[in-house]
Description:
- This protein is 55% helix and 8% strand.
- By secondary structure, it is mostly helical.
- It is elongated.
Amino acid sequence: MLEKKRILSGMRPTGPLHLGNYHGALDNWVKLQDVYECFFFIADWHALTSDYENTGSIRENITQMMIDWLSVGLSPEKCTLFVQSQIKEHAELFLLLSMITPVPWLERNPTYKDQIVQLSNKDLSTFGFLGYPVLQAADIIIYRADIVPVGIDQVPHVEITREIARRFNYLYGDVFPEPQSLLTETPKILGLDRRKMSKSYGNAIYLSDSPDQIRSKTAGMITDPQRARKSDPGNPDVCNVFEFHKLYSDGQLVSRVEAECRTARIGCVECKKLMAENLVAALHPIREKRDYYENHPDMVKNFIDEGCKRATREARKTMTAVRDALKISF
């Protein structure tokens, strides 16, 4: 029997998870856990790279993120679910890798440059923010991951990890495999205002939203900006509500909505209501599981504890090999 390849991925606990998180990563993770040996972690140290001044919500965010993960179908029996900060070996490997990582590699990171511009209201002139790709590399290679599932914009992150692993192996001997990117296609799903769905934009539909919250948010969604009146023909190709229909409505309704929108036989209000009910129905199983885990916090804590123990065992194996390679074992 062939040994399963190992996957590593994580998320920062910066708030409740939304549909963008689900379609962008979680839905794919649920499928991957049946094919690969998966390690998925809550990256709480990474949350500090840009939000180091506001740490009060991190602990609750960790719990809520784990509940979201369990509710969408990630199984502690199929994959290792853990919290980054509970595996202290991540910090040790980060320190050692920082000794060999050239600063220009970090300064050319496109995400670093982009975030400096987008988050101009925050002081990001910290070593932690500049060096987060090194911590990210440690997160990945400490489990000797073969594959990292990413969107196309995250490929440079994996490439830096490959370069760091390659440099370590050149200096000290082959310890780490060079992880490969697994490109994941994600459906086109924008926020309520047609921008990227984001907590910071206040335009998200969350996995934890109630049916009434979903209906209310859907009612305020921006549709075809050129359609001023119900009697005007619409263009589903530029309407975000129609994109949601394609995800959550059956094929027959999608075809009907498209035809009736183009011929002004259905208005935006009715179109939104139809989509909202299908979205509510689609998220119902997730909400049921969320309610269950919310009422069983000890079970959630046990899942986290067991995942952290498994992750620690693997991380310690790697760090033994790292210390031997560096000749700092005693």
